[in-house]
Predict the structure.
Amino acid sequence: MDKMVRGAYPTIVEGNLMMNTQQLIHDVEVLPPELQKQVVDFVSFLKKQQGLRIRKRTMGEYKGKIHISDDFDAPLGDDFWLGKS
């Protein structure tokens, strides 16, 4: 997408979403306090969800939970490739 498409909040530039933060801040500021609280709660929820997705792995976390057969590297027979049992 070569051209920019502007909407109320997002600006899409070459397939990437860039927020118009000034407009978003204004729109939150004019909300009643109870709706502002819902916005804050939703942002917290999104941040937690993002944190769950980028959790770093720990060394040894899967130790003893994964088994690789001794013949893992052995060639597979014709029956496998032909769909026979």
Remarks:
- The chain is about 40% helix and 10% strand.
- Residues 33-53 form the longest helix (21 residues).
